[in-house]
Design brief:
The complex is a heterodimer. By secondary structure, chain A is mainly α. Chain A is built from 15 helices and two strands. Chain A has one domain. Chain A has a two-stranded antiparallel sheet with strand order 1-2. The radius of gyration of chain A is 22 Å and the shape is globular. Chain B has a single domain, classed as ABC transporter involved in vitamin B12 uptake, BtuC. The radius of gyration of chain B is 19 Å and the shape is globular. Classes of the chains: A mainly alpha, B mainly alpha. The interface between A and B is large, with 44 and 45 residues.
């Protein structure tokens, strides 16, 4: 007797496994337990950069658009929410709303100007716009942003009478938002829109020929990605109770690029894994040398050369290869159709 | 409306702008040659310029001659460029076109830290070369000799570059490979070697920019990224992959930066990005960009 064989459709679906919503809840469970394993500040950083990376990954990993100026959205989110709290006495939710809305408007502007351009061109232009914001905050707008000192004297925030300036409450506050964003990202990727994104990355010309407006979809993804960036920036402001000028610095844009590639662009958990590994490396190397950029940069170069899929992408390839090999071994047993 | 004094200030600032722009021209033309030939946007371009600046510092302190400094800077950095192209970029050709950009970005993060370990955090000054330290009077204008030298030197380099590309056999092959690399290969030329030469040429030009800038700026580990950004802005303004665009864009940005630092000092860093945004609005492919390449 031969063992029961799945139909060919089941086999193929198995090879191209989509992230099931269990992925979201499993990730949330791990993140909930994270402060038990590593220090709370490190865990909080992982969540903030993880949210930032999820949005960046939608753009780079799923649409194939490389933005080298994502610090603009992160920093603008931090400054907009911080300024709202400091000067207008905005509450925490109003501040977060401001921190999300302002970067989305900026993304509309940058997208309208540049999203039509070819990949490398868009990368250069977005980088330049990021620098423009950095220099604007540095000196012409110094009287509002406090220039190099960063934005201080932001009132302490509370939510449901939880003091958000204490490490553990802020961690679980950000954790709750991270879980919402994880679920939202999963829903976006599983929606027809999400499939469209992947279709573009694989073959933009063909998607265009099928009648899809590729420019419009890229534009929407950029704005959506700015939402994540702004949210992460606003949360970073709440966490630090301070907005450093470095939130707008080019290295912030570079860091999110490195984290996303390290974790695996175009994979669901890649940005979170990338943020965790990157921050862990940075913290560990900083213990014995201030020159962590040398090591992180070198590791990044090695990843680009040897594993462009990043950690999760490489794991996915290995798992898929194993699955295919197993299926191929069984293939002769499949009765020929017709 | 304009008094004589105002005109003097105007011409002085124009002169500063042209000298600054000359450095941008050298930077951006290197970037353009590399992009045109290899389709690689070299994020580490400014990093190569920074290495050029340090090479001048080392060579001048060893030999005492600025000319030796410039020549060795170009030679050393071009050699580093050859190694980078052979061992790091070559494996990425034919894959995702964003990978070379990301790889050179990684270099621009790692290499400045290496320089910090070797040379320390503080800037390394290089004295003005002898005979170029004073100033020349031209009517009411006081023109610094070194800035005059930068302008003339850039002009000489550009003319020799033009002659090389237009008149020499190798230049002809480089121009042909920029147009259609595959066809050149079909005709029996080893394009792989041409690409290596092109990358060395581009990084050599970057080193030249860093080398002639160093007496005015001093060599610092973090000057590279700033120079990369400037080169990107110039390239977007002038048009990607166009040598003429690099020249006009470089001079234009140099003059704009010089005038804004006179009129509104705090906006001097922002001005070139504004200029880029305006160009993108009215002429998205840049001043000299070919349509279809944007």
């Amino acid at each position: 007797m031969t063992e029961p064989i799945e139909s060919r459709e089941t086999m193929l679906r198995d090879v191209n496994a989509k992230p099931r919503s269990t992925v979201v809840w499993a990730a949330a469970l791990v993140l909930a337990a994270l402060p038990l394993v590593i220090s709370v500040p490190l865990a909080t950083d992982i969540l903030i950069w993880g949210i930032f990376g999820m949005g960046f990954n939608l753009l780079l990993g799923y649409t194939g658009v490389l933005s080298f100026g994502h610090a603009a959205y992160f920093g603008l989110g931090a400054y907009a929410s911080g300024l709202a709290m400091r000067y207008w006495g905005a509450g925490i939710w109003a501040a977060i709303a401001a921190g999300v809305a302002a970067p989305m408007l900026l993304a509309c502007f940058i997208g309208a100007l540049a999203i039509r351009r070819r990949g490398v061109y868009f990368a250069m232009i977005s980088l330049a716009f990021g620098q423009m914001l950095f220099f604007l905050a540095l000196s012409p707008l110094k009287h509002i942003t406090r220039g190099e000192d960063g934005l201080t004297h932001i009132p302490l925030a509370e939510v449901f009478s939880l003091p958000l300036h204490k490490p553990v409450p802020i961690y679980y506050f950000i954790f709750a938002i991270t879980t919402v964003m994880l679920y939202m990202t999963w829903r976006i990727l599983e929606s027809p829109f999400g499939r469209l994104l992947r279709a573009f990355r694989e073959n933009e010309e063909r998607a265009k020929a099928c009648g899809y407006n590729t420019t419009l979809v890229k534009f929407f993804t950029l704005v959506l990605s700015a939402l994540y960036g702004g949210l992460a920036g606003a949360l970073n402001m709440l966490y630090l109770n301070y907005v450093p000028l470095t939130t707008l610095f080019w290295l912030t844009s570079g860091t999110i690029v490195m984290m996303t590639i390290l974790g695996g662009k175009g994979t669901f958990l890649g940005p979170l894994v990338g943020a965790a590994v990157f921050l862990f490396l940075q913290n560990t190397i900083s213990l014995w040398t201030p020159r962590w950029e040398l090591f992180v940069g070198a590791i990044f170069v090695a990843i680009i050369l040897a594993f462009p899929g990043g950690i999760m992408g490489t794991i996915r390839t290995i798992v898929n290869n194993r699955k295919t090999a197993r299926l191929q071994k069984r293939a002769p047993a499949v009765p020929s159709e017709g | 409306m304009f008094s004589d004094v105002n005109w003097t200030v105007f011409f002085m600032q124009l002169f500063f702008g042209l000298a600054l722009g000359s450095i941008f021209v050298l930077l951006a033309s290197g970037l353009s040659i590399i992009y045109g030939l290899l389709d690689v946007v070299n994020f580490a371009h400014g990093t190569f310029a920074m290495l050029g600046a340090y090479a001048v510092f080392v060579a001048v302190s060893l030999s005492g001659s600025f000319a030796v400094g410039i020549i060795s800077a170009v030679a050393i950095v071009a050699l580093i460029g050859v190694l980078v192209e052979l061992f790091l970029l070559k494996p990425l050709y034919g894959k995702d076109p964003l990978l070379p950009l990301l790889l050179t970005f990684g270099l621009s993060v790692a290499v400045p830290d290496l320089v910090k370990i070797v040379f320390g955090l503080t800037g390394k000054p290089v004295a003005y070369p002898e005979g170029l330290s004073g100033a020349t009077l031209a009517g009411p204008l006081i023109l610094s000799n070194y800035r005059l030298f930068i302008i003339v030197f850039t002009l000489v380099i550009l003319i020799s570059l033009w002659l090389f590309l237009k008149k020499s056999d190798l230049g002809m092959i480089i121009r042909a490979a920029t147009r259609d690399s595959l066809m050149v290969q079909v005709l029996g030329t080893n394009t792989s070697r041409i690409w290596t030469i092109g990358f060395a040429l581009g990084t050599g030009l970057a080193a030249l920019a860093g080398a002639i800038a160093v007496p005015m700026l001093a060599a610092t580990p973090d000057m590279g990224v700033e120079m990369t950004m400037t080169a990107f802005v110039v390239t977007v303004v002038g048009g990607l992959g166009s040598l003429g665009g690099a020249i006009v864009g470089g001079l234009l940005i140099g003059v704009i930066v010089a005038f804004t630092s006179l009129v509104a000092g705090e906006y001097s860093n922002v001005a070139m990005y504004f200029c880029m945004a305006v160009i993108l609005l009215i002429r998205p492919r840049g001043l000299f960009g070919e349509s279809g390449r944007e």
